[in-house]
Amino acid sequence: MLPEPTLRRLPWYLAYVKMLDGKHQVHVSSTQIAKTLNVDASQIAKDLSFLNIKGKTRIGYEVHPLARALNEFLGFKHRHNAFLIGTGSLGSALMRDLGLMQYGLNIVAGFDIDPSIVGRNVGDIPVLDFSMFPDKQRSTGVSIAIIAVPAQNAQEVANTLVQNNIKAIWNFTPFRIKVPRNIVLQNTSIYSDLAIMYNRMESSNNSKYCTK
Amino acid sequence: MLPEPTLRRLPWYLAYVKMLDGKHQVHVSSTQIAKTLNVDASQIAKDLSFLNIKGKTRIGYEVHPLARALNEFLGFKHRHNAFLIGTGSLGSALMRDLGLMQYGLNIVAGFDIDPSIVGRNVGDIPVLDFSMFPDKQRSTGVSIAIIAVPAQNAQEVANTLVQNNIKAIWNFTPFRIKVPRNIVLQNTSIYSDLAIMYNRMESSNNSKYCTK
Q1: Is the predicted pLDDT of residue A210 greater than 60, yes or no?
Q2: B6 CA to chain A: closest CA distance, Å?
Q3: Does domain A4-73 have CATH number 1.10.10.10?
Q4: Domain parsing of chain A, residue ranges
Q5: Staple partner for A87: which of A77, A110, B60, B171, CB 3.0–4.6 Å?
């Protein structure tokens, strides 16, 4: 299995070589990537070796094929169908984020329990009553679900998803949900990131006062 | 300075005790928190000691004051004004996400360079031409900026922000931007998280085949 730190760096390389590709640059050295992204050149070579990509001495990597290979390897070229549970402000924002589609994620339906939302569309995506989830899952075979419900309902919703053949959960709530071992759980903690930013701002303010 | 792992766990505690508070539970033991969130009880006690919060023997923590203290400590109770640069699909999704407001983040203006968007509102927030940024920053004193521009423009935009008194950047692009040391940089890599989820799904499929 690929080490997670490698997997976190690969999208940086992709973003960078896509930019170079847009500027019609043909080759890039690991030194140039290293300098721009602040990653060790030897680390870059090691990371890319997982994709069986090797640079050529003095020439480096071919930009366009590298971008293609990274895009393919990261799963962004394939279409992954997903359900989204909880079409509140964050949930409906994700449904409207067409950027996700570029990264291979296709939200086919939203689910909610609020009768004023159920039956409507968010963007072009229909919102169904969550009680329909088991039926809809069976008829579509979708195995990915995004959770954007209020934190207090996150675990209960996750349990229902797991009972109904969901194999991967992308959790946007700040709640630390638990799932069986065979279920893939990915947490994206926007609000934790916000807390960390606030805290660092505070610290940098304080240290400013200290040195005065 | 608070260790980052502690800072990442505090929002989990907050989400959990807020849920208990909603159910009118008065006390919670660190064992109960530990069991639910899968964190060591001694670690919880240590994390909360940074907030000068101590549980009482056999009673545990008082739920409501703990929720208040965590909310306060994490900076969610204060209003932090911010600009958002790049009002494409992800950017405008963030502008519509009223959830951010609950966590203290108030987006006061969006900026873009697309003339078909500039001058409009997203949600209730006006979108201005990015050339107006320096003026608008000076007149408002806003020091936080969220970057949601195409990855290839991320570094250039960041440079402009730093030159115009922005002190903290929340980077939603997959581009690894560089900023001076005194600037707070927080990356939220939604698409990396997606790549990690895809990769784990693949691995768990593969291991399923192997055991057959």
Answers
A1: no
A2: 10
A3: yes
A4: 4-73, 80-192
A5: A110
